[in-house]
Amino acid sequence: MLYRESGQFKTSYRADQAIFPIRQDRIALMVLLAVVFILVPFVADEYWLGSILTPLLVLSLAAIGLNILTGYAGQLSLGTAGFMAVGAFAAYNLNLRVPELPLIVDFLLAGVFAALVGMVFGLPSLRIKGFYLAVATLAAQFFIEWVFTHVGWFTNYSSSGVISAPPMVIMGVTVDSAVEKYLLTLVMVAVLALAAKNMVRSRIGRSWMAVRDKDVSAEVIGIPLLATKLSAFGISSFYCGVAGALWTYCYLGTVEPAAFDLSRSFQVLFMIIIGGVGSILGSFLGAGFIVLLPILLNNIAAMIGHGTLQADTMANLEHIIFGGLIIFFLIVEPHGLARLWQIAKEKLRLWPFPY
Amino acid sequence: MTSDLNFFFEVLFGGLLSGIMYSLVALGFVLIYKASGVFNFAQGSMVLFAALTFVGILEMGVPFWPALLLCLLVMMLLAVGIERIVLRPLVNQPPIALFMATIGLSYLLEGLGQGIWGTQVRALDLGIEDLPNEMIQEALGIQVSTFDLFSAGCAAVLVGGLALFFNKTRVGLALRAVADDHQAALAVGIPLQHVWAIVWAAAGLVALVAGLLWGSRLGVQFSLSLVALKALPVLILGGFTSVAGAIVGGLIIGASEKLAEVYISTFTGGAVAAIENWFPYMLALLFLLVRPQGLFGEKIIERV
Amino acid sequence: MSVSEKQIGDVILRCDNISLSFGGVRALTNISIDVREHEILAIIGPNGAGKSSMLNVINGVYHPQEGSVTYQGQTRRAMKPHETARHGIARTFQNIALFKGMSVLDNIMTGRYTKMKRNFLWQALYVGPNLKEEIEHREVCERVIDFLQIENIRKTPVGRLPYGLQKRVELGRALAAEPQLLLLDEPMAGMNVEEKEDMCRFILDVNDEFGTTIVLIEHDMGVVMDISDRVAVLDYGKKIADGSPAEVRANQDVIDAYLGVAH
Questions:
Q1: ipTM of the complex as predicted
Q2: What is the pTM of this model?
Q3: Which residues of chain B make contact with A330, given a CB cutoff of 8 A?
Q4: Side-chain half-sphere of B260: how many Cα atoms within 13 Å?
Q5: Is A10 contained in some domain?
Q6: Range of C259's domain?
Q7: Greatest pairwise CA separation for chain B in angstroms
């Protein structure tokens, strides 16, 4: 009864083009933003902020990036973590070598570097599709990992290959507590998520989806294939790059190639499959699901009296559950949690009088 | 022969023979791709799963040959299970959805295999030495491992058998029809389910052989599933649909990888080392730009 | 019918001696066709005669081995499809080639692609110039939707629509590009009589109201003879006749091609 759009008449195309045309959605979003920006920093403890919410947000950003490429433009990528690594190392090196630049600029430039690398590895996409392209993105993953492990300049010739991220100073304020890092991540993620949502409902987003759905007719309608695919690779990698920089600075606190291995790429891919391929909201839902599920499992194990599970048992269990869930979602709901949410909303619009 | 040249040939042969090991894994991919249009990312996990199961059965005190048979049975049951649970509900879905399902499957198998049989590294001894073959050393003066020769022999037998199976039997014909078009195959009365189960069982057999050979070389452990990642460039080079391509691609990748590893790091004074992770990919990628369908793949013509 | 009164202008597209082959198979042999401004030209012929290949040559999907295409004073052998789109050529496909994951409105909005100018940074912000542009083009698309009478399905994903409506949406996507030359590949294939009548009316209205030049491929002879100003007949990759519907109907080669002839 509460979630109803009757009486809300749209009288202009402008109103019809809004992100949230229904008033209740706008109110819900305001409440959500108030909670994550104001309430959470007050009530959540350091563990929740630093070890759960911050990585969740960063991975959501990476998932948005992958979703732009895979969900919207239809180009499957297994190199997400590689592009994150480019962002992480670019941010570190910019900070180290051009200290005059403000940190936020470093982060954004890190995204730009990742975008450039992403576009180079996107070049084969004109000639190859599907699995072949997926394998080509694996090449990016392995090559980038190798470069950061073996070329000393990137790690500033550190002997261990693991470097602490330098302290973050933004406009004179040192960002070092869990709350501050959380808020910084939240602001970045919120702004970039809004930008992504805007892009996918504009011309560029339509051109991505057109290429995904039917590339021949996309080209016939005037959409240049290579430029469009490269724009998807570039913008997607920008998001991954910024996510990589945030992962390093706001979550890990160290810069190391091992944080961006192939399993990270798969983790992000799983997020968009479970959350919803081709949905910005789904990127958040998927990240939330994948980050929170292992914690939930551990808690359940503790409750039924096994104590905390051993690490390798836990890892195997996670593998089994995630693998099973991927198959389950692909079979039962290929559009993931986002579609379930949408169905729930449609049901709710008629509830409690569906006739 | 000068020692330089000798060394070159040793590296080359070593590379070619390890290439055959890649081919063995790639063969499993080709088999499934040819018969169902599915790019089975889980092939590597099947290799791991097969090796783990075999070692597990051996450790229970079962002798070698019964254990092999038992393990084969397990792989066949697995194939039937995969067909029933994963593939059947996804008939007519876009290939990319099936591909992602096999990524899920690979996680599932890794977790399951290690959950059942444990995660520690195990040795597997097939009774063949991984030492230079004395006969060849005397005849040609270069060192080639007996084990490598043995695995090359295994690969040859497998490939020969599969080629016969694909080209000379009724089931083989059905497989090729299914690969071309699921719906059309169903329409002419080919039992899709049986065909899929058969081909996954065959891929399971290939995985078992690859698992035993790789397992006895590297030890049976998680990293076995990563062997699959080595097979991917082989596939790109050889084409997804060609058994011959898998073999030739494996040989090329194996040889060039070893040669590049040895010579590039020598030339650069060790500055560029440990490139075996990405070198085959780059090679395959460059090749792809020239010939997108691979060496022996079928050219796809899109109609408007 | 207004066809007889309308002004048919100069030649806007000229294909000279086009030959196209795939491997060893000759799809088109030495074909020359002119298209005049504002006319409706039908290309007919038995299956496999090379009709679709001809359209594909015109808008750049296939590149002929020999011959040239002159359009808007420019002569070329090969041009990318997205470039021909920019020069005002739009088309529909024999098998529906809509963007299945998108709504009707979004499909039609992609037709506006070449007319929209804001770069992606504005699109990321959405407000200001980008919003203005989106709304401007939405208005154009709404006029197309109105013209084709598909207002009630504008937000429906195209995958859920019946075949006839999908064909109509595809026409809408092409119209949204405001083409000078519209290529229609079997726009009425698989339709029932009523749907065919609707589609005929839309085609004639487009030609009439917007002055769009139309080249269409169609198998239904009744439709072809009724709506086209001129008919070209292909058989085995060669042009065997070209003229008014009445002339073509009387042409002995055409009768032979369709009915077969004793050798």
A1: 0.90
A2: 0.91
A3: 90, 93, 97, 100-101, 104
A4: 18
A5: no
A6: 1-88+179-263
A7: 64
